[in-house]
Specification:
The protein is α+β, with helices and mostly antiparallel strands and 210 residues long. The chain has 2 domains: 45 residues, no CATH class; 122 residues, no CATH class. It is 35% helix and 16% strand. The strands form 3 sheets. A 4-stranded mixed beta sheet has the order 6-7-9-8. A 3-stranded antiparallel beta sheet has the order 1-3-2, with helices on both faces. Strand 8 and strand 9 form a beta hairpin. The longest helix has 13 residues. The chain is elongated, with a radius of gyration of 27 Å. It starts with 30 loop residues before the first strand and ends with a helix.
């Protein structure tokens, strides 16, 4: 068609050429925020609704979407790492709690419903894709060590279901076999522990003869 100039009478109408709707593809299990869809549409919410209707995405809570993933056993939920990275906008975070505490061998046998996650963005309890997360906006090391987890356990001994007396005696026994680094333990206690935790650790070291 020739879109040259033609003589006419009356007001010039603006001709608008509509592009075809975006048709993005996603990796199975990929998690996105609503705002991530803006790269394909000026109205990401509307695009998200359309992609859900087409079965290309599933809507979760808190403005999250996931690309369906399945195996021979059925639908596969997104992994926790993908959920947390997207929900926290790739901000640093650290998973701690019973699994890490119990592995220290200091008497903790606690079990949580969900994961305890330290981060720099949000605090609160959230359920994402059926997984429970207890998010707490607190300080944490960039590279956690076993000694830091000892301090973290002591700071949350009540949640872990173990007394400070038990932790003190178990830590003393562990230090006799040099299970943890004494200098790192003291450094982590000074930077991340309360005075109470610092006292317990010092008493345990003295009990161990260190």
């Amino acid at each position: 068609m020739n879109f040259g100039l033609y003589p006419f009478f009356g007001k010039l109408d603006t001709v608008i050429f509509m592009s075809h709707p975006s048709n993005p593809t996603f990796k199975p299990g990929q998690v996105l925020r609503t705002e991530d869809l803006r790269q394909w549409s000026a109205n990401p919410s509307r695009l998200g609704k359309r992609l859900v209707q087409e079965g290309k995405l599933e809507f979760l809570k808190q403005g999250l979407y996931v690309a369906p993933r399945s195996s021979k056993f059925g639908k596969v939920p997104p992994d926790s790492q993908a959920l947390l990275q997207t929900f926290l906008k790739n901000s640093p975070y650290l998973e701690t709690g019973p699994k890490a505490w119990n592995a220290l061998g200091l008497g903790s046998t606690s079990v949580f419903t969900g994961a305890l996650v330290y981060n720099k963005k949000r605090s609160g309890r959230f359920t994402l894709a059926g997984k429970a997360f207890d998010l707490r906006r607190v300080r944490f090391p960039a590279t956690p060590t076993p000694e830091w987890f000892v301090v973290d356990l002591m700071e949350h001994h009540d949640e872990a279901g173990v007394s400070l007396d038990t932790l003190e005696s178990r830590l003393a026994a562990a230090m006799r076999t040099r299970r943890f680094d004494q200098e790192k333990l003291l450094a982590m206690a000074e930077e991340f522990g309360t005075h109470r935790t610092q006292r317990v650790i010092i008493k345990a070291l003295r009990e161990a003869g260190l």
